[in-house]
Amino acid sequence: YDGSTTAPLYVYPVKDGIAGERIVNFDEKIFKKLKALGNNVERGEPNEVDVFEYIYGALYNPDYREDFAEFLSLDFPRVPWPDTPAEFWMFADKGRALKNLHLMLDSAVGKTSYPLTGAEGGGLVEAARFEDSKIWISEKQYFDGVTEETWETYFGGYQPLQKRLKDRKKRKLSFEDVKTYQKIIRIVVETNRIMGEIKKAGTVAAESEELA
Fold first, then answer.
1. Among candidates 84, 60, 93, which has minimal Cα distance to 191?
2. Could you give the maximum distance between any two Cα atoms of the chain, in Å?
3. Is the pLDDT of residue 86 over 50?
């Protein structure tokens, strides 16, 4: 469709210039296997959205990213099969939370703080830097209450909090710009928290297997 849409969840086959009913854009064999691996009594058989969210969560697993870091720098990620239905739904639930965060849904992001502090400066981005739990946009103004981990966090090949300000250097942040940046800070914080939960869940599962 365009440069930002390469693998949509649904496609609409066109015949004689008319779009037909949408179909799920998964390989049928892979989709069938993932549905079977995730099927259990409590949650039932996963649908295509559940499978998408499983993939989203699995690819945000810190252990997966660490183990396959070299490979991921060279090729598309390979989706791991879940060992149990419980593991499938753990990743799906975490993936759903991450997906909604990254879509910037207000219901997922929740309340933001990180006030832009400083009486002078007018929101002009001069040179972004981090110091003493503050993201400074100039010598006079800063976003307060941010951790260094959040400031340094990478999404893919860039650091979102740093890149956004670098892209706006010598520009004044509008009211909406400030609100959006505060929202992005919150998204990064929550992403790191959820990734920590995924890692912890994997550690607990591994320890349970060893005890068994």
1. 60
2. 63
3. yes
- pLDDT tens figures, 24-40: 999 999 999 999 999 99
Six-digit token string for 22: 């949408």
CA distance 77 to 17: 34
Give, in order, the Cα–Cα distances in Å from 172 to each of 30, 137, 190: 49, 10, 27
Residue 121 backbone phi and psi in degrees, to 5: 125, -30
CB atoms within 10 A of CB 12: 12
CB 146 within 8 A of CB 137: no
Nearest alpha-carbon partner for 54 in 198, 192, 187: 198
Residue 134: its pLDDT value, please? 97
Q: Partners of 143 in the beta sheet?
A: 116, 135
Q: What is the pLDDT of residues 116-169, one digit of tens each?
A: 998 777 899 999 999 999 999 999 999 999 999 999 999 878 899 999 999 999
Integer Cα distance of 10 and 34 in angstroms: 17
Map 143-206 to HEC letters: EECCCHHHHHCCECCECHHHHHHHCCCCCECCHHHHHHHHHHHHHHHHHHHHHHHHHHHHHHHH
Residue for token pair 């607990």: 204
Residues 197, 80: Cα–Cα separation, whole Å: 18
β-pair type (134-136, 142-144): antiparallel
pLDDT at 211: 42
pLDDT confidence of residue 156:
77
